[in-house]
# Entry
Amino acid sequence: MTGVVLATVLGALFALGTFLVLRRDVVRVVWGVAVVAQAANLYLVTMGGLAGIAPIGKFGKEGATGVTDPLVQALVLTAIVISFGTTAFALVLTYRVYEEHGTVDVGELGAAE
Amino acid sequence: MTVGTGAGADMGMGTSASASASASASASLSASASPGSVVRPLQASGAATVDPVVVAPVLVALTAAVLALLVPGRRPKQTVSVVGVVAYAVSVGLIVDRVLLPPDRLVYQLSGWPAPVGVVAVADPLSAFMLAVAAVVAVPALVYAVVHMSDDAQELTFHPLFQFMLVGVSGAFLTGDLFNLFVWFEVMLMASYVLVVFYSGPEHTRAGLQYVVLNLVASALMLVAVGGLYAATGTLNMADMARRLAAPAAYGVAVAPVLGASAVLFAVFALKTGLVPFQFWVPPAYGAAPTPVAAMLAGVVKKVGVYAILRLYFTVFAAGSLPSALALPGLAGDSLLDFYGPVLFVVAAASILLGGVGAVSRDRLEDVLSHSSIGQVGFIVLPLALAATASGAGLGPPFGDVATLGVAAALVYTVVHSIAKTALFLAAGTVEGTTGTTDLDDLGGLAAQSPTFGVAVFAAAVTLVGVPPLLGFFGKFLVLSTALEAGSAVALAVAVGGAVLTVAYVTRLWGRGFWGAAGPAVGSTLALPRSEVAVVVALAAALVAVGVGFDPLLRAAESAASAALDTGAYVDSVAPRGPPAGGAGAEPSVEIEVEGIEVGVGAGGGLPSTEVVEP
# Structure
């Protein structure tokens, strides 16, 4: 059940991110990139498997047959930090583009070439 | 957990001095090998030498980057940066000396965590070869940047960013862990984002935005591919992954999802390498970046994508065989690598033709060069495509088979393109610096102004064509002989067609820019900066020298190519440990959990003893 919900959410996030990346407004494009990055993070967590208890603090307790794979969670922490930094840079760059060109419309930026 | 620990330890080491880091690392190594310790000895019998020199290039560049960030003022930053890049070249030289000839493999387990739990750094001949290429480009590019770029530009961030880019490149060449590869890619790319928009004018910001957004999407895709590969194989360690793919039934690995995830990963690498159909970002980004950075992007950063394709597809994924139900007609074999042969061939052929046609029709020097680098990367990937599908036909020495010949041809061509394109980009920077333009219509007669400069540019340009005795001749020769030996008439036709296009754009560049009467922007007397000309001349001299004395490079390329294709030796050198064959590979959490606890106890972790698996 959790798997179905997560798969649906992942599909929706990737679809939303792709939709935003294809917009003309550069700010929305950056939003789209951020959404796609988060979708990738969620996908990574899902790939660790959904069975088992939280991988910290409850080892050996009653009924705990296994723990969830902690590796993917560490990976995602790293990936979140990276995508935070890159998203911030992309937003600053967007502002800089607006300063230089007076527009954030991809079509107008391309026409200025 | 494991990757987090490894990355954290790596960063920690980097901020301290490299000497103390190596000392503490070797201390922990010897401790773990002592008989009373719970952690098993790091080395299985027959494994490669464990040596901290493996991570020396990363540490040297990282130290230089941090120092260049901390010291105030332009002069100290320049000093730190130049000393840093020379020390980098020395550290690369140490590794090359140890592993390239005769071939050897050095493995360093970060923090002493054994593979596949910890992150390993592996220096094999292929890594050493690529590191040497990086060093050969980085030193002249940085020296040129110091003399060419304005004082203001070097005041704050240029030198730290340059060094950070070198950190990412070296890490990517050396890591033996898939997620770690992603992290090094990000380190390299983040520095390159800022360097591309360094001048932050209108055209720079626009090109930079395109470059950043594309690479961010590619990074997300890479993350998805890494996640998929982890779920399918249950490991992130490249050697362990190859081991599991070689015996999928024993480890419960489903190979079909690996094919899908590796295809996503291939698209990412093709984008970073600038192969058709992902080539469109290359000309604007190279045009916007400062010329020493454009030289680094074309000469080094691009080659990281080539390296990743070689390492992952030729070393790791080649170990896996597709289920017969998935085999397509017309493929030479059923390994995952055979599947990529046709894909590589199509992107290589398209890159050669599109890049060549694009370069012929451009009017600005750096546009010609960046389109040319799309085509030249096609020449690197074409022999790889033939190597991927080659059957094991016997050849005379020094190459045992077509696969080795193809990979060696790609590696030699990598050297050719890196040095020649670096020289040409730097020359374009000098032309722009002195005449104020790179438009071929306004140039002309540059060779008459400075014959030395003209000869150097000519040597670099005809190297791309492949005229003996320059190095480029051997690159073209090996590519063509790979096509001949593989019996591929189409590849031969594409390579010859691409060579004709190369002749066309090189002739045009030389004839309109450097020969003939002086153009409007050139004038009668033009003083080219001597130090900048000296760097270009040094690179051109290297092309002649290595072309005349080609044998060592050939043997190095052969050694690196054999290493790239020898999956067994790579796996043995890393010697990943883990549960015996038959573990629950389909459910990665179980397997990794057991390994983590097993080692965690040995390392002093507070986990219950009931979970311990005795060595």
Summary: Residues 70-101 of chain A form the longest helix (32 residues).
